[in-house]
């Protein structure tokens, strides 16, 4: 705790200012400190004001109805303090009774503490296997059961706290050890703390002057990530963006600018017909990016994959040659490191050779698989990524960083800035008194940009690279455990042969009623309905969640993914048993 002479003062008052020296304000702060720190608060007040100069409130305004009653200054030295704390009746209070209103300190601290209590109860329940993953209600039921509409008149703080509880009551517990539905699962405590701090700081990432520490942390973290990709000394550039889809679109934007810089001013009419290439198992965001950039979805050529979902390099080269013969200009190949459904890793070295041969920008969408770079055991699956021109990497997936946290890494320094800068003079003045290279906003498409880096940085500090490595290795080991449990188990068929490369385990559950049937249109039709019914039952019981989907000519199958470090072998066993319990009558 800083001393009075070190520049620290509670609630943002400048030391020596009228607000800081107001006895009432000081007294209120002491009461808050005592409420939440017990006897420590008494010692803190003594430190700040001296034993003989404890503040005495004078001329205070009458308390608002429901506000905390003033309590005598605590003089006990018990740990924890047993003195009576301030009581707040929120039924008569509104947001206007919170800071920055005058004398709103105690009410604010009490209110926020109650919000934190609600959050902490939710966090603890999220890891309790006896609780539901989801308390499922149909949309019309939730709409009818609660009034979600916005009104002209304010609600009381009591009602606001109820809104918080209700929202979390029906939220999916994505940190629950038996939640396997999406690529982003888990709930990291350090990441959660970092997210709270980020919201409290409530700043924007466009200039150093308003986000000095966060801008520096983004610089340090992106450089470290580029080092792990394999670019010498972490050279290059990058940015944190609102998800992998936007990171992939950034890559397309920069690749187009690199080949035809005039497109920035003159638009698509000034350049030839461009085409991009990606695998038929790649993420839909590649086509979305092409649509958003005016390139068009018809200009995204899908490359065939092998039976494991990996891009076939010979087909990529054939399609590039065909496109050039038609007069099109290949400008980007988007390889995938960890496909969404199969978890496949495209052969990056062979793809890099082709991109070099035909002078095409190579992008690697490692949104899902990029985290394996943290693992000495598994990073070989991304061999060749160091030859990419750009990489998407989502720490909010395999690394368990709270949403959202996605990075776009670019090998060529300065290219992103040239592509996107617009020289807004009201933000990026050229005569500032510090190094302007730390004003990162002009290289982003966004103006307002959320602080996403702090969660990753703080977790990395807490875990170290070895901690992330252990977490990722554990998830991959659990996926292999599931695969070994079901590959020869009665009632299960694997979607593809062989051990999965990532944590994606794709399989059909064959209910007893279908096991004796030969392959036929009727069996296929019935099998298509199995996964959706079991998934619906999972949600209605609230016991677990796992995703399913069709792919190509394959009817609905389960896609199990594991990225939650809270999951154990027992949770995998539970999932198998639950699928069988819920599907035995189908």
TrEMBL record:
GO terms for cellular component: cytoplasmic vesicle; cytosol; Golgi membrane; presynaptic membrane. Its cofactor is pyridoxal 5'-phosphate. Its EC number is 4.1.1.15. InterPro entries: PyrdxlP-dep_de-COase, PyrdxlP-dep_Trfase, PyrdxlP-dep_Trfase_major, Pyridoxal-P_BS. Keywords: Cell membrane, Cell projection, Cytoplasm, Cytoplasmic vesicle, Decarboxylase, Golgi apparatus, Lipoprotein, Lyase, Membrane, Neurotransmitter biosynthesis, Palmitate, Phosphoprotein, Pyridoxal phosphate, Synapse. It comes from the Eukaryota. It holds the Pfam family Pyridoxal_deC. The modification N6-(pyridoxal phosphate)lysine is found at residue 397. One of its GO terms (molecular function) is glutamate decarboxylase activity. It is a peripheral membrane protein; Lipid-anchor. Its main location: cytoplasm. It is found in: Cytoplasm, Cytosol; Cytoplasmic vesicle; Golgi apparatus membrane; Presynaptic cell membrane. Catalyzes the production of GABA. Belongs to the group II decarboxylase family. This is Glutamate decarboxylase 2. It comes from Cyanoderma ruficeps (rufous-capped babbler).
